[in-house]
C-alpha cells in the first residue's frame, strides 16, 4: 500500500476517543456533506493480497467504515462521536480490527456514486468534529521501486503491446508413406 493520505485504524480511533461529546460530520466534496441523519451500517476488515505488474507480491489490510443516508429525514438525529465509538466497540467485540489497517470511508447517495475515500484531517468546528473525505486513486506500485511498470525477462516494459508469438511449423509429407495412412487405419 503506497498512499500518502492513508490513516491507520489505531490513529483514527484515538482521534475519535478525544472528542466523544462532539457531533461527527463528514464532508465528501466541496460544500457536499453526508446528511446529519446518516447511519454507520457496518465496518469491514478487508485483507488485500496482490501481485503488481512488476511481479511483486503486496499485502495490507483495509478497515472500511460504511455510511448510509436514509432517504427520509430523521429529525434531531446527528451522530455524536460517542455513538460512533459504541458501534466501533460492538464491532471490535466480535471482530478484532487490525490497528495498522488503512481506514477508508465508504459512502454514496443518489447524487454521488458509492466509493471508498480516505479520511483527511479531523477539524473541530463549533460542536462538530468534521472529517473531510479524499477520493482514492489507482496507483502503480512498480513506479515506487524505480521501474516504469515492471519489465519482462527480455527487458520490455510489461505494459508494452504484446508481440505475436512466432511458431515453427514442421512440415510432414504424409503421402510419402502410404503404409502408415490407409483408410480405416485411424491416421486421418
Give the helices and strands, then pairings.
Elements: H1 9-17, E1 23-29, E2 32-33, E3 39-51, E4 57-68, H2 81-94, E5 102-109, E6 112-125, E7 128-135
Parallel strand pairs: 1-7, 4-5
Antiparallel strand pairs: 1-2, 3-4, 5-6, 6-7
Features:
seven-stranded mixed sheet, mainly beta, single chain, 188 residues, 34% strand
Q: What structural category arises from helix and sheet content?
A: mainly beta
Element-by-element helix/strand order = HEEEEHEEE
Mean pLDDT, as a whole number? 84
What is the radius of gyration? 28 Å
- Please bin the fraction of helical residues: 10-25%
The span between the termini is 57 Å
The total strand number stands at 7
| Shape by Cα distribution | elongated
Strand arrangement across the biggest beta sheet: 2-1-7-6-5-4-3
Question: Into which percentage range does the β-strand content fall?
Answer: 25-35%
What low-confidence regions span 5 or more consecutive residues with pLDDT below 50? none
Number of helices, counting only DSSP H or I runs of 4 residues or more: 2
- Biggest beta-sheet profile: 7 strands, mixed
Describe the 3D structure.
With 188 residues, the chain is mainly beta. 12% of the residues lie in helices and 34% in strands. It contains two helices and seven strands, in the order αββββαβββ. It has a seven-stranded mixed beta sheet with strand order 2-1-7-6-5-4-3, with helices on one face. Strand 6 (112-125) and strand 7 (128-135) form a beta hairpin.
Amino acid at each position: 500500500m503506497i498512499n500518502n493520505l492513508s490513516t491507520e485504524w489505531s490513529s483514527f480511533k484515538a482521534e475519535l476517543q478525544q472528542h466523544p461529546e462532539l457531533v461527527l460530520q463528514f464532508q465528501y466534496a466541496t460544500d457536499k456533506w453526508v446528511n446529519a441523519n446518516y447511519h454507520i451500517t457496518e465496518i469491514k476488515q478487508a485483507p488485500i493480497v496482490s501481485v503488481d505488474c512488476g511481479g511483486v507480491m503486496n499485502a495490507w489490510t483495509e478497515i472500511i467504515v460504511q455510511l448510509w443516508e436514509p432517504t427520509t429525514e430523521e429529525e434531531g438525529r446527528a451522530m455524536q462521536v460517542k455513538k460512533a465509538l459504541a458501534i466501533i466497540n460492538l464491532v471490535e467485540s466480535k471482530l478484532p480490527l487490525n490497528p495498522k489497517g488503512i481506514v477508508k470511508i465508504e459512502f454514496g447517495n443518489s447524487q454521488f456514486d458509492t466509493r471508498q475515500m480516505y479520511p483527511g484531517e479531523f477539524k473541530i468546528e463549533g460542536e462538530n468534529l468534521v472529517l473531510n473525505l479524499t477520493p482514492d486513486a489507482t496507483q502503480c506500485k512498480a513506479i515506487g521501486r524505480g521501474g516504469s511498470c515492471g519489465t519482462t525477462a527480455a527487458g520490455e516494459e510489461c505494459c508494452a503491446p504484446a508481440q505475436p508469438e512466432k511458431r515453427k511449423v514442421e512440415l510432414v509429407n504424409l503421402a510419402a508413406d502410404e503404409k502408415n495412412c490407409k483408410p480405416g487405419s485411424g491416421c486421418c
